[in-house]
């Protein structure tokens, strides 16, 4: 156990981080090791290139978008707490959270709304709180094979926006986004079970 | 149902015909031999001459034709596993044979099974084993394989003995040891049966690898237990001493580790041999089969676990063999292996059915048979639950209830048990026939009944209470997006974990094993992704050069006229792009719109309009699949579909192009990240000032970079055999881009000043001096440096004008130009290659300046090209170009990039 506590001491602000993200100590420690492993020259933070080195992300259509989501507001580095905060969105919701949570505290990062918000901001490139038809088209381009023509893509994007757009402004707001997915089991779909 | 019913007699007829062919000639052959000799006969009928191979060939044919038959109807094969169908077919065939001959002339003999049918199946399993997954779960697999099998054997044997003592089975001539012997042979989960069934049930990869791995590795346990108890039975119960038991345990380790060792040694041998088959390509695939088979026979000879030997031979050699042998040979190996394995499996199941039709082997004892069935199911379930309970305390990925149910239920027994039971010596094991018939029942029960029900069971367990409805467009799209997001996050959070041992092994492999076992040229292209990247990198860089050249000095060519094609030194064989793309457009449009009936049917209820349907269909068909969905782990009947690779390539291209593009746009001055870059710059500033590299060319003094540069020089002298930079560092290629990008961010705002100073401390090969002059141009920050690029989908090429002035200036600097700010080490490396290729490809055009010759085509054709790009895989297109004339490459990205989203800033 001695080794564990010494490791734990390495993580800055471990307790507050655990409270905020809800990760277990073991998970946090594992993520910390992962963070260190990704950090190629022990800078203490991750740069974009550190994440781009993960080979599997290069074949993920949304890989670069995900990477971008680690670097909000034009920053070029992500430190461990921020790294963990992003990942905390994907922690499976546990039952005790719902009952025991203090209502005054902010919603946990892994709540349904926060999960959705995370996804939403991957679409919403210009951060205006709306997914425009153009933004939808860009995501579609990433996610659809080369066989589909531009015209088809445009039509799909158009229809998708139309379907979700309720106030008729030609864009999907976050509420509309959440509404269009209300039947989907987001809690389950956007959770990774190892991130306890 | 009616269709199946109708097919039955049809098959029977066909088979009767085939069999008649076999029977009638035999009679005639006899007749003719008995006839009088009439001198020289022009044609003789010599059935006996060919009888055996003929019959074998016929059986194989029958089995194969049967498979065709099964797959005529999707409905049948989607419900009933093929193995079950084959067994039933075998029963029918056996019945016919028996009706004709009244002796069971064809049975599955242990010799045939163990020597000819089993090895291809197991080799196939090993050779296509998803190694990473396998070794990642090795602990779990071993526990199930060893402890689980021992547990099954012991409990089943002992329980049966207990019931026997209670007298429920009536009067049988069996002792405790016989029961344990039976328990040990019936305990092992069979690799053939498990794979046959699990392949059709889609379970998650971890579960699959655990059950699959267990079925392969428990062979050692089975063999040892079987041998031990058989010898104990021979000795007689009273003569077994404690020493024998200890010997038994020791022999387990010897058999399993020995078998593994034999496999590893032969894998080493095989890899080494394939390293030197460059000039005998045609027999290359043969080595793979012969040497692996030898590993099987060798360990059989040494009475070690042969299955382990050939499994590990396949597992260990796959990496090196795949790298060493030529692409064609690899394809041959893949297909041959699949063919052999699939064929062997077919024959095994069919003959299991046929063998059962033999009244001589049947001895029925209801209590024994039923209790065996109950015990093996119950104890397997108990064993799985207990072991999982222990394992889950240590496993990162927990095995959940549903996994445990599937694992318990997926414990199929198969031909191995049958072959082992047939091997028993009747003189020693008095109730051999009872064992045989019970084994047959168990095999049939597990394969047919459990095989039939496991799929519905899995579906039933997975069923959520959600109502069944058409997903909306949004749900479909976002749902898929979530899948991708999830897998990306998994990769980032490192689900697989950062394994210390694996790192060590990778290191060892890279430093020693690969050097010994791989061709030098193969060491380069080990990794598929890196391979793709490598090509892409090269081509993009070439195009980058070309683009720059064009902007710098060939701006006039951008006037939209096809006449400019003349300027381009493309040799004639290349078809006109315009025409090609139009025809592509027409042709592929059809397929893109075509609808499959199923989706039509699905949507009939709620058709709003056709367009909607098309939209849904298009999405359904062309949305990239998330990892879990498309990654086939292992399939005996299918080669990994190239679809996935295509998808990977497409996405990879896109990603890399985007990254390169953002790098480029930054380089060209369209840097959007100014604020961020400044921040970064400030940080770096101090370091840079003190640095010996004044322009901060390589801000990270990473040994890798130095290495790269050295390697590049090497490459110049020996293009074929030089070890590749990327091979040395798994993610080296990607790192290059990343580095460059970062580099850019650092440098761009600092303007042009830094670029003048050459890098110090690095060698500059002579070739550097004769670099094409204009190649420097793209690195010029244009006046647009301060304009953030508008988020248009098609990034407009930056103004070409200023680049021109600087060209001569760069020309005058030898090293500075080569190491100029705009070029990373990798960039330089690529350029040397470009040069080399040019020298080969267009020696004539060189005098007039290669840069000038590489003209773009008209902008009107660009539109067409853009469309065409979307249709063809860019990959093949690029490759073709590359093969033809590398200078043509620069036109590709300008079209292809337009697909990508606009470069965007971080704000």
Question: What do you see in this structure?
Answer:
The complex is a heterodimer of chains A (196) and B (907). Chain A contains 13 helices and four strands. Chain A is mainly alpha-helical and 196 residues long. Chain A folds into two domains: 14-88, EF-hand (Recoverin, domain 1, Orthogonal Bundle); 107-196, Recoverin, domain 1 (Orthogonal Bundle). In chain A, the strands form two sheets. In chain A, strands 1-2 form a two-stranded antiparallel sheet. Chain A has a two-stranded antiparallel ribbon with strand order 3-4. The longest helix of chain A has 15 residues, at 150-164. Chain B folds into three domains: 2-35 and 45-79; 110-462, Na+/H+ antiporter like fold; 523-560 and 582-590 and 642-853 and 882-899, no CATH class. In chain B, 69% of the residues lie in helices and 0% in strands. Chain B has helices at residues 2-34, 47-72, 74-79, 82-101, 110-127, 131-136, 138-166, 176-187, 191-198, 205-235, 242-275, 284-301, 306-324, 327-356, 366-392, 401-409, 415-423, 432-462, 473-493, 500-517, 520-524, 528-553, 577-593, 597-603, 610-622, 627-630, 642-667, 674-690, 703-717, 725-728, 732-747, 801-811, 814-818, 825-841, 850-853, 859-871, 874-884, 891-896. In chain B, α7 packs antiparallel against α15. The longest helix of chain B has 34 residues, at 242-275. The model of chain B is unreliable at 1-34, 464-468, 525-533, 553-608, 628-632, 670-865 and 867-907 (pLDDT under 50). At the A-B interface, α3, α4, α5, α6 and α9 of A face α19, α23, α25, α27 and α28 of B. Chain A: It is found in: Cell membrane; Cytoplasm; Nucleus. Chain A: Residues 26-61, 111-146, 152-187 form the EF-hand domain. Chain A: Keywords: Calcium, Cell membrane, Cytoplasm, Lipoprotein, Membrane, Metal-binding, Myristate, Nucleus, Phosphoprotein, Protein transport, Repeat, Transport.
């Amino acid at each position: 156990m001695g080794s564990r506590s010494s490791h734990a001491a390495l993580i800055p602000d471990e307790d507050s981080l655990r409270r905020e993200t809800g990760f277990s100590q073991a998970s946090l420690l594992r993520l910390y090791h992962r963070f260190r492993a990704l950090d190629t020259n022990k800078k203490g933070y991750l740069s974009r290139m550190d994440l781009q080195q993960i080979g599997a992300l290069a074949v993920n259509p949304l890989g670069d978008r995900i990477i971008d989501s680690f670097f909000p507001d034009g920053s070029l580095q992500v430190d461990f707490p921020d790294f963990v905060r992003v990942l905390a969105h994907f922690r499976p919701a546990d039952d005790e959270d719902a009952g025991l949570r203090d209502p005054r505290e902010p919603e946990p990062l892994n709540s349904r709304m926060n999960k959705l918000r995370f996804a939403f901001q991957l679409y919403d490139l210009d951060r205006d709180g709306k997914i425009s038809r153009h933004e939808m088209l860009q995501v579609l381009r990433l996610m659809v094979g080369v066989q589909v023509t531009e015209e088809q893509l445009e039509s799909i994007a158009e229809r998708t926006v139309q379907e979700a757009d309720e106030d008729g402004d030609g864009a999907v707001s976050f509420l509309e986004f959440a509404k269009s997915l209300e039947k989907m089991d987001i809690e389950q779909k956007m959770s990774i079970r190892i991130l306890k | 149902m009616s269709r199946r019913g109708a097919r039955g007699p049809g098959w029977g007829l066909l088979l009767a015909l085939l069999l008649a062919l076999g029977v009638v000639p035999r009679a005639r052959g006899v007749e003719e031999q008995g006839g009088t000799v009439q001198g020289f006969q022009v044609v003789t009928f010599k059935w006996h001459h060919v009888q055996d191979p003929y019959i074998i060939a016929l059986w194989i044919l029958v089995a194969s034709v049967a498979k065709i038959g099964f797959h005529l109807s999707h409905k049948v094969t989607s419900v009933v596993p093929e193995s079950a169908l084959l067994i039933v077919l075998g029963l029918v065939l056996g019945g016919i044979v028996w009706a004709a001959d009244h002796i069971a002339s064809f049975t599955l003999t242990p010799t045939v099974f163990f020597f000819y049918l089993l090895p291809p199946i197991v080799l196939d399993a090993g050779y296509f084993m998803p190694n990473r997954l396998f070794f990642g779960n090795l602990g779990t697999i071993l526990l199930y394989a060893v402890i689980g099998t021992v547990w099954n054997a012991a409990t089943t044997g002992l329980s049966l003995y207990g019931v026997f003592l209670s007298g429920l089975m009536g009067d049988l001539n069996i002792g405790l040891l016989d029961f344990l012997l039976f328990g040990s042979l019936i305990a092992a989960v069979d690799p053939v049966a498990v794979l046959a069934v699990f392949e059709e049930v889609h379970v998650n990869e971890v579960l699959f690898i655990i059950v699959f791995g267990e079925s392969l590795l428990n062979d050692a346990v089975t063999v040892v237990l079987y041998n031990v108890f058989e010898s104990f039975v021979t000795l007689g119960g009273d003569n077994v001493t404690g020493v024998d038991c200890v010997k038994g345990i020791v022999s387990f380790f010897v058999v399993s580790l020995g078998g593994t060792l034999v496999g590893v040694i032969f894998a080493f041998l095989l890899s080494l041999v394939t390293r030197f088959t460059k000039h005998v390509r045609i027999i290359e695939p043969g080595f793979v089969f012969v040497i692996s088979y030898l590993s099987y026979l060798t360990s059989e000879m040494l009475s070690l676990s042969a299955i382990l030997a050939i499994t590990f031979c396949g597992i260990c050699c796959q990496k090196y063999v795949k790298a060493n042998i030529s692409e064609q040979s690899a394809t041959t190996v893949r297909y041959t292996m699949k063919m052999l394995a699939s064929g062997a499996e077919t024959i095994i199941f069919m003959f299991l059915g046929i063998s059962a039709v033999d009244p001589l082997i049947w001895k029925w004892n209801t209590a024994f048979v039923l209790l065996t069935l109950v015990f093996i199911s119950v104890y397997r379930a108990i064993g799985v639950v207990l072991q999982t309970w222990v394992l889950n305390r240590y496993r990162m990925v927990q095995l959940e209830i549903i996994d445990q149910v599937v694992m318990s239920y997926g414990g199929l027994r198969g031909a191995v048990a049958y072959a082992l039971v047939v091997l028993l010596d009747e003189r020693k094991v008095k109730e051999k026939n009872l064992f045989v018939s019970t084994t047959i029942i168990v095999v049939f029960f597990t394969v047919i009944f459990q095989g039939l029900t496991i799929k519905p069971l899995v579906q039933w367990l997975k069923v959520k209470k959600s109502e069944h409805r058409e997903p909306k467009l949004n749900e479909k799209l976002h749902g898929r997006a979530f899948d991708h997001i999830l897998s990306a996050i998994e990769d980032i959070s490192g689900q697989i974990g950062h394994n210390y041992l694996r790192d060590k092994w990778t290191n060892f492999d890279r430093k020693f094993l690969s050097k010994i076992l791989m061709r030098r040229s193969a060491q380069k292209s080990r990794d598929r992704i890196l391979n793709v990247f490598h090509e892409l990198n090269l081509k993009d860089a070439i195009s980058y050069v070309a683009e720059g050249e064009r902007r710098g000095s060939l701006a006039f060519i951008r006037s939209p006229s096809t006449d400019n094609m003349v300027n381009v030194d493309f040799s004639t064989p290349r078809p006109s792009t315009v025409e090609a793309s139009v025809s592509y457009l027409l042709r592929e449009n059809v397929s893109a719109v075509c609808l499959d009936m199923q989706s039509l049917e699905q949507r009939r209820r709620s058709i709003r309009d056709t367009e909607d349907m098309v939209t849904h269909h298009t999405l359904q068909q062309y949305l990239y699949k998330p990892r879990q969905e498309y990654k086939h782990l292992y399939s005996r009947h299918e080669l990994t579909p190239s679809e996935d690779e295509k998808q990977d390539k497409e996405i990879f291209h896109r990603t890399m192009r985007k990254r390169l593009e953002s790098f480029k746009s930054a380089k060209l001055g369209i840097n959007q990240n100014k604020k961020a870059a400044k921040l970064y710059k400030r940080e770096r500033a101090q370091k840079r000032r003190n640095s010996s590299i004044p322009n901060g060319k390589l801000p990270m003094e990473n040994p890798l970079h130095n290495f790269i540069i050295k390697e590049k020089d090497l490459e110049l002298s020996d293009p074929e055999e030089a070890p590749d930079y990327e091979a040395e560092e798994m993610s080296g290629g990607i790192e290059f881009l990343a580095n460059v990008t970062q580099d850019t961010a650092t440098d761009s705002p600092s303007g042009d000043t830094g670029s003048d100073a050459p890098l110090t401390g690095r060698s500059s090969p002579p070739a550097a001096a004769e670099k094409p002059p204009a190649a420097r141009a793209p690195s010029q920050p244009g006046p647009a440096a301060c304009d953030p690029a508008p988020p248009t989908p098609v990034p407009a090429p930056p103004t070409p004008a200023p680049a021109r002035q600087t060209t001569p200036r760069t020309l005058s600097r030898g090293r500075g130009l080569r190491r100029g700010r705009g070029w990373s080490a990798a960039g330089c490396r690529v350029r040397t290659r470009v040069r080399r290729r040019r020298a080969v490809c267009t020696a004539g055009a060189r005098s007039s300046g290669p840069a000038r010759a590489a003209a773009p085509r008209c902008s009107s054709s660009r539109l067409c090209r853009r469309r065409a790009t979307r249709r063809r895989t860019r990959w093949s297109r690029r490759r073709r170009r590359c093969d033809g004339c590398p200078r043509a490459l620069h036109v590709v990205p300008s079209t292809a990039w337009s697909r990508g989203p606009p470069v965007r800033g971080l704000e």
